Amino acid sequence: MSGASRYWRIQRINFAGVTVTYKEYVVPKAEEFFHQRVKYSQQADIQAALLSYFYAEKARVDVISRAEAGLCLRCYVSEPIVKACQRIDNLFGGEKFFTYHDLLPFVLNDDGKTLVILDSDRNHQLLLNDKGEVQTTAYKFFTVEVLRKFKHNLQSSMSLDNWAYLQTKQNPELKDFLSEFGFKHLSDWALLNRTRPKQIENLSVQERHLVEVFHATYRRDRRERKQIQAKRCPDPSHAQLQEMLTFLQQRGVTINSTEKLKEELEKVAIQLRQYDIWSQREPLEFQDQETGNYTIRTDLPTNFLSEIDVEKQEITELLYEQLKISLAEAIEQEIKNNIQRLTDSKRYANLATKYIPGLQLYYCQNKSLKEIVPLLEMSSWDQARRVLNPGELLNKVRSQTVQKLLNSLLNIAHAKGLTQIPPEPDYIKAVAEQIESFVDEELFKEAGEEIRAGKSRSMNSLYAKQLQIFLAGNLMSLHLENIYKKLNN
Hints:
Elements: E1 9-14, E2 21-26, H1 28-37, H2 43-54, H3 63-91, H4 100-107, E3 115-118, E4 125-128, E5 134-136, H5 142-149, H6 160-169, H7 172-179, H8 188-193, H9 197-200, H10 205-224, H11 238-250, H12 258-278, E6 285-287, E7 294-296, H13 307-344, H14 355-363, H15 369-375, H16 381-388, H17 390-415, H18 425-452, H19 462-475, H20 481-488
Antiparallel strand pairs: 1-2, 3-4, 4-5, 6-7
Helix pairs in contact: 1-3, 2-3, 3-4, 3-5, 3-6, 10-11, 12-19, 13-17, 13-19, 14-19, 15-16, 17-18
């Protein structure tokens, strides 16, 4: 569906049949309002006019007109909401025991009939009854919530389509649902507590000892104190860390202090977090709360794949593995390049040591450039922008990722006898265009939207998470006590 009809056709839940799905419905009130009140020919003007009506920016706009303009916009955003659910489905692959249909009820709850406006502060949804009277309501249409939070007047604001798409992926109820399948941002201690056997295989001998003694102490206490149902795993206590040190000594591993032990555990957690980000296609497991053991889900599909399906799966896994490697290398390379450029600059040499802390505040603490200025003792917002420049870093990492992934895939293709070295120019161009489109869709489109979102941004893209992993590893060797003291004041 495209064009003007998006403003009077809504995607709604359809409960017909066994599977919950969605269906497109015509909304007569929205269509009538659109043709009677919106007389512009340009798409941007149409949307601006409807938003102006809905937010009551026009003088003497009656509540019925506001609500009907909102109905048009609710129709419009229903499409990217569905697309976001489908995108989440594709992102997590096939071994997850849910489809995008299971996500729809959390975000596609608009009936396409009820008239709704916002209060004067745009904090609450208000219903209109048959008499046009305003009523409060505890129930919230997600489409209206998307519109309520949309800042359309900001020059840096993203499009309404992209905003609806982003808000859907950040919907709390939808994220809670996904957390039941292990897709959740966990603390370091939660990651260590739920470490699975397949993850342990990728660790060094000492790292395995660290995880095992952590389980022997921390997981045991969680069970004994019936803390398993708690929403968050607390920091390990001093007594627990001391006991872990004793267990490690018995295994021939010497660590001098509880502070050093905590640091080593956090390093392991960084690897586990990276595994979680990039291994979303691994079989899902359940943890037995009595024994603490993990077992493969018995309700996962067990049908065997054909030879063609196996080959397709191997190609997909190879592509994502190379993407992961290319992104990590590009981030490390460009950050080092930026630090070197700052070091070599007469004007910014004294700020080179603040580059990584600044990125950490921006990507891990969600601080704005304006908030970073006093924390890093910079002179102005403009200086912070010139030194950190997240947008420029994103563009450079994107360029490097595309080039590295292209080189990797060409080498693999040559090794398999699929192409010659050097390949034909037209072949390279065609492959490069496909790779560029692929990495944008998988990584950089969402990452760019996060930066443009302003104060409402949430750094949850794969690019942001990979950057956070790199920064966390580097921050362990930097002295940031003064910065964190300021943050806690």
